């Protein structure tokens, strides 16, 4: 298993995914440890200063006016974490929590937060031991950082609260830390605040969402190509010179994928002669596929640029500047991330919507160009894929609701001290649900298009789409009388979600963009 070095510079998105999803180990560089120690000395100096300093010798949020005596400051930090570990609701996925811890560790490694090296090392130890704090769904407003989720992680390195171990069991943190030889951290001045004041949860979910959406945008081109082929559509509209008339980069990439996926298709060749094909233009859901999927790609790239800048950030309040000042700031506000999370949810809903429209065309005898109603084996006796499209429609309707922005819905908190918040955590949570929905919608289109293509026999699909269908058929049988459909849909979902559909196509076409 790979090891990711955590230094004073930014992590890459690929490194975040490797740690969060693949369990890669982490290690702080010597440079990072030195930077952490250097700024800790600045905070240690302020601890003896009779002048109040936020987070060092004061309360927090609306209680920042309270000066805390020296003998109570360790308790101040412990109380901060215990009180802020107030999440409620379903448990958050392990990969999200691992990303959360990794990104907080990355900020600690910049040397801008004032924690001790041992505190940062404790996060690395938890990640490497596959100890995952239990974090709950609700509790973050995406401002002053992802406070409650991060507090649950900080609670774990204190040896308190619940964690999941490598086998999946929930145990108490103190026992697990002892079993792994990890010494619980006794927080000192500023450390509690430094562990919870970041945008790490929403950023981690954005980064993983972008990885998923890059794969799904290619999958959407595959399913669109299969639908064009199975519905006897035209590939002429995807020509490079036509696409160049509107120089949107995502659109060009999507159209190039469609040309590669449809290359050499006997089905397409069977109706290329205008005398044999009387349709002048295909429906929008076929003809405009690269315009929609391309816009999704461009949205992904915009969001990736925001994520890249955030990966290079040191988000904390107060922060230790390179010249040694300790300054309050508002960099914990999640607006930049929240906006693009919401933007992506809009793009996801639209990509799923056009996919569902193509599926519906396959099932309608009036629009599917000679295929049986609902692609049924014996229409009337059999219902074919009728209700699979119902599932798609239900998901698309849900995706439209999830596309409503979270970032415009600020609710003031902390006695109006924190009077405008980003709701970025909520935006990230709904994007994750939206990505799952898109995966399912594309899987149903793929299942439908594969059956439609096979019902065109003896005409054969092109090499790329044939490879996708062959890979699908390893787990999902082809056309025939009605059978228990739900397990087949779930296997198609796994086929799409795992990237197997993309790999099957790329084995023929080469890398798709």
Automatic annotation (TrEMBL):
CDD domains: PAL-HAL (cd00332). One of its GO terms (molecular function) is histidine ammonia-lyase activity. Pathway: Amino-acid degradation; L-histidine degradation into L-glutamate; N-formimidoyl-L-glutamate from L-histidine: step 1/3. GO terms for cellular component: cytoplasm. Belongs to the PAL/histidase family. NCBIfam families: hutH, PRK09367.1. This is Histidine ammonia-lyase.
